[in-house]
Every structure is written in structure tokens, then in C-alpha cells.
Amino acid sequence: MGNIGTNIMTAANYFGTYAGLFTILFLAVQMVKRKFNVVRFGLGYIFLFYSFCVFALVFLPLPTLAEQANLTGHSIQAVPFHFLCDIARETPFVWNKPQTYLAALTNRAVLQVVFNVFMTIPFGMYLRYNFHFTGKAITVASFALSSFIELGQLTGLFFLFQGSYRLCDVDDLMLNTLGGVIGYFMVKMVEKKIPAIECFDKVIGRETRYIKTRM
């Protein structure tokens, strides 16, 4: 949690490096389709930066040479809802003492849960608005994304290192999936009041008005 700022700066550096490649690929696809969508283009940039941030937050910093020498096994927390035990053990919350509420809400154990939910909300929002994914499809996609992250943490970044340097946690799998579903519902609640992304499509040489039927 303490490395969040540093990791986001690292993600920004990688984003600056690969943003040009993204632009070339996006424009190539748009030329093939003979249309350009500035909103889809902008959201693509935002999603690319978001993807780099997620990677940096869940896998960085990499272990030092000294730390690598001590990596001997693959760690997993396989008990569902174990985060409730962490919250009960680590927070000073006492239900009849309001003065403990703020300290409890800002405790590391609580913030870790909030972070894992919020991390994938943009993922669900993007898939719904940009691709019109259904709730079931976003649930599966969010679960797949979280599984990729947790397997990477379990295997030491897919066996790049000889042991785990981040804890694989089944609670993170559930919380990340929940975040994606929340993102879906956030867009679902307002999508009838905002233009569909296809409304911004422009065919080369003229403007088109096309509104996709909501799913």
C-alpha cells in the first residue's frame, strides 16, 4: 500500500513509452473500418494507462537480488472471507464507541479491501460502455482478470522468480470480481441518459448517426 504513488509513476513512464504504439494500432483499425470515434480513442488511452497502473500496483516493485535469494515457496491464502478476521483483529473498531470509527475505516486491513474492490470498477465500466458487455460477461471477465493477477502472484510473476513475492489471496479474487460487477451496474444505471459510444462514430468524409440498441 505504501508504494502506490511510486508504482503509479512507474506506470505513467511505461504509458508514455507505449502510447505511440497504441495510437498507431488504433488508427490502423479505424482506417480498416473507415470510421473514427474520438470518444473510443480517448477511452482507449485512459484504459491503457489504467492497465499499466493495475500491473504496477499488483506486481511491482520486483524483489531485489537479496530478496530473490529467500524466495523458496509459493504462498496462497485460500480461506474465503479471511479479510473479515484481519479487520476484526487489526482495527480498533468498537461498535458503541464512535471515536473508534474513523481509525477503523482508515486501517490498513479495511483500505486493502476497499482498494481491491475499487481497482476493477473501471474495468467493468469500460467493458460495459465501450463493448456493451452483459453483466454475466463482465463477471466472467473480471474473474478472469483477477485470476490472472492472483496466478501471477502465486507463481512469482509466472515463474520469473523461484517463489512468491506477493501473496495470492482468494479474497482478492472475490473482491476484484465484485469491483468489475459494480462498474457494470454504475454504467447500466446511467446509460439511458448518456449517448451510446456509437453516436460518436464518424465515417471518413461524412458524419453518421448510429445508435446501437441497448443490451
Description:
- The protein is mainly alpha-helical and 215 residues long.
- It has helices spanning 4-33, 38-59, 65-68, 82-90, 101-105, 108-118, 121-131, 135-154, 156-159, 170-190; strands at 35-37, 76-77, 168-169, 201-203.
- It has one domain (4-62, 74-203).
- It has ten helices and four strands, in the order αβααβααααααβαβ.
- A two-stranded antiparallel sheet has the order 1-4.
- Helix 1 (4-33) packs antiparallel against helix 2, helix 2 runs antiparallel to helix 7 (121-131) and helix 6 crosses helix 10 (170-190).
Topology:
Layout: H1 4-33, E1 35-37, H2 38-59, H3 65-68, E2 76-77, H4 82-90, H5 101-105, H6 108-118, H7 121-131, H8 135-154, H9 156-159, E3 168-169, H10 170-190, E4 201-203
Parallel strand pairs: 2-3
Antiparallel strand pairs: 1-4
Termini separation: 38 Å
Strand content: under 5%
Helix and strand string, N-terminal first?
Answer: HEHHEHHHHHHEHE
Uncertain stretches: 207-215
Largest sheet: 2 strands, antiparallel
How do the strands of the widest beta sheet line up side by side?
A: 1-4
Total count of helical runs of at least 4 residues: 10
Describe the structure concisely for a colleague.
By secondary structure, this protein is mainly alpha-helical. The chain has helices at 4-33, 38-59, 65-68, 82-90, 101-105, 108-118, 121-131, 135-154, 156-159, 170-190, and strands at 35-37, 76-77, 168-169, 201-203.
Features:
mainly alpha, two-stranded parallel ribbon, 5% strand, globular
